[in-house]
Structures are given as C-alpha cells and as structure tokens.
Amino acid sequence: MGILSQLSIIHLLWAAMVFCQYEDYDFEDEYEEPPDHQQPYYFNFNPNTQAEVSRFPFPVECARECFCPPAFLLSMYCDHRKLKTIPNIPRHVQQLYLQNNDIEAVPAGPFTNVTFLREINLSHNKIKFHMIDHGVFAKISNLVQLHLQHNELEEFPFPLPRTLERLLLGFNKISRLSGNALEGLPNITMLDLCNNFLDDSALKGKPFSNMKNLMQLNLCNNKLQTMPPDLPSSLMYLSLENNSISYIPENYFNRLTKIIALRMSHNNLQNIPRNTFNLPNLLELNLGHNKLKQVFYIPRSLQHLYIEDNDIEIINVTLMCPSIDPMNTNQLTYIRVDQNKLTIPISQYAFFCFPHVRTIYYGQQNVNVNKSTQLRISVFRRFLTPEEYDEAEDDHETHDHETEEDHEAEDNYFHPYF
Question: Using an 8 Å Cβ cutoff, are 165 and 143 in contact?
Fold first, then answer.
C-alpha cells in the first residue's frame, strides 16, 4: 500500500506540472496581427464550426491582388487581373495561377518564402527568357508542373528543378535547345514544345535521349524536316503535326515499342517503309494531309487510322494485312480515307483482315485535278447496334457539313494532360 500511495502522489504531481505548463503558455504569442486587407483563413475540421485551429502553425494568408477560395486554401488565383508583376507568394501555397496577365519578368523576390509550391501557371503573359532570374524555378524544390505556353520565350527556361514532371512551353519563340537545357530533369513525363521555331539543327544534340521517363512529347507546328533523333524508349505519345518531314528512316521505331498514339498529319511524307509501324501497342495513327501514294502494314493493335488528303489511288489490303490470324485479330475499327484519289471502295477482303471495322469514311475524292467526286457511299458502316446506328447517323450528318477548318480542327495536337 505504501508503494502504491507514493506512485499516486508522483502521478498527481506530474499532472499538475503539465497543466501549469499549458496554463502559462500563450498560443497567440506566435502570431502577429495581420493587416486589415489580409485576413487569414483557417482550416475547419468540423463543418459546423466557423473557425478552428489551422493545420499550419501560421495563418493562411493571400496576396491582396489575388483570390484564395476558402474551399481551396492551398490555391492562389491571380489570373485575368492585368497584373504586370508577380505578387509575393505566401509559403503555404501549392497551386499558383497567374495566367492571362501582362507579366514580363519572373524575379526571385516573390518566390523567396515558398515551401510547398507544386504548380505554377504563367501562360498567356509576355515573359522573355532574359527576364527570368537565373535559377528562380530551380530553387522551388517541390515543383511538379510549370505552364509557360503563350509567352515570348526565345530559349528554353533552364535551369529547372529535378522534381518537375510536366513542362508546357508551346506557343513561344524557342529556336534552339542548348546542350544542358534538358539535363537534370529525370522525372519529366510530358514536354510540350509545339508552335515554336525549332528546326533540325536545334535537335542535333539529341536533347531528349536522357529523359528516361518521358511519355508524351509534342513537337507539332515547328520547322522540322527530319524525325527527331534518339527518342527515349519510354515514349507513348508523339506529336509531329505541321512540320516538313519527308521520310521516316527504316527501323526508326524499333526502340519505341510503347508508342500508343502517333500524329504526323500535315507533313511531306511520300513513302512509308513497309513495316515502319510494326508497333505492338499503337492505337492511333494519323498520317492525314501528306503525299502518300500507297498504304502500309497495319499493326494488329491499331484502332484508328487517318490517311485522308493524300494521293492514294487504291487501298492494297494485302499490304495492310499480309496474313490473317483468327486467334489474334486486327483491332482496327475506324478508317478515314477522304480527299484521296480512290475510284472504287476498299476490297471486301478487308473485312476478313479487319473484322472489327465499324466505319470507313470515304467522303469526297480528288480524282480530277479541278473536281472532287464521291464514291457510291461516302460512309460505310457495319455491325451497328440500334444505339450505335443512331450515333453514327448523327456523325454522318456532321461529316456531310464539314469544312476544311473542321478537318484541320481534328488534327490538333495532343491535349497537354493524359
């Protein structure tokens, strides 16, 4: 009993000491009174409570030029506000939206205190390369996504942090990629360089070869005349539309076996080596608006084929499908062949090779120089359920009223997100 009594007394003394520590501690000492225009937000753990203690050990503030929604306290919206400079960024912010402003420079000052920043959107501004403070982005150690499309960049904005995964640089004036521009970016999965001034000389240094995690590369609307060299084997989406590429070297895709979608419309392709696209995972192939005279081998995985606006006079099904394997059938479901020089429909043999074909869009054919003609049927459809038939009829009406602008709209490059 004596020992138990002593333990009870010790326990009471310890509890009293802890209580006194909390009684003497003033929780408000750590916080300074915020300015009138900058009232802090707090996380609410209980939806029925108006304000409770923040998860952060400091008030969640917001720049006065911007908006920080109570429902998205980690995001700061400064877009569409005619800003000429970047406001100071509170250290808790994870998503920063500064698109559609008049910002010309990216100084280091506003980013001094950032700790958790993961996404920056500076698209649709007036930023030039020499107006970006050297290393300003590289110091943001948690940055994952950076939007700089629709600016006035003349060069690739390096250095960048190793954490970066998505980089969007479309619609700028980038004409060269310096030797070390893409070094130290092991985690990049998506790189968008569409609508710039890149030519073959800009890619001589094989800038993409060490990007081992790159899955999507957009190089559309540039000045390339040859295929980009030494692409990483991790690539799944490749966009090369609207260049001046005239040929694809044999065995070019041998290392790129993971390719799912390839878009090369609006180039100068004339001949395709027979087994160029022998790719086991290819689902979409767009070679429309080129100068092709004949078809080529179709991999069994392919589902959508676009070869409109070429110089094809006859569809040689044997070239597309040299053998039939009932246990491993071709998956092709849609073919677009309008604006070629076809005078007869595709051979019925095609339906043995491609048993899943639902739609062949013939549209108008350019048989004569000054006159387009139409085959007996502009759209061939088969094996449709009633619901699919109704949907196809709606699609048919759309095709009947297509304009050249509509055709080009279909060839837009990949959406930046996948």
Answer: no
- Two structure tokens written together for 67: 């908006």
pLDDT in tens, 122-176: 999 999 999 999 999 999 999 999 999 999 999 999 999 999 999 999 999 999 9
- Work out the average pLDDT over 244-257: 96
Among 344, 349, 280, 358, which Cα is nearest to 312's? 344
Gap between the Cα atoms of 277 and 269, Å rounded:
14
Domains of the chain by residue range? 60-152, 274-389
CA nearest 211: which of 167, 150, 154, 155? Answer: 167
Entry field: residues in the chain = 418
Q: What is the gyration radius of the CA atoms in the chain, in angstroms? A: 30
Please report where in the chains the tokens 């020089």 appear, as a residue: 341
Range 94-126 burial, b when 16+ CB lie within 10 A, else e: bbbbbbbbebebbeeebbeebeebbbbbbbbbe
Residue pointed to by tokens 């260049």: 243
Cis ω for the linkage preceding 159 (within 30 of 0): yes
Type of residue at 46: N
Residue 285 β-bridge partners? 262, 305
3-state SS assignment for residue 241? coil
Distance between CA atoms of residues 387 and 366, nearest Å = 33
CATH number for the region 60-152 comes to: 3.80.10.10
Do 225 and 246 form a contact (C-beta atoms < 8 A)?
yes
**How many Å apart are CA 42 and CA 54, to the nearest integer?**
5
Q: Give the residue among 45, 56, 44, 124 at the shortest CA–CA distance from 94.
A: 56
Q: The tokens of 264 are what?
A: 């090369």
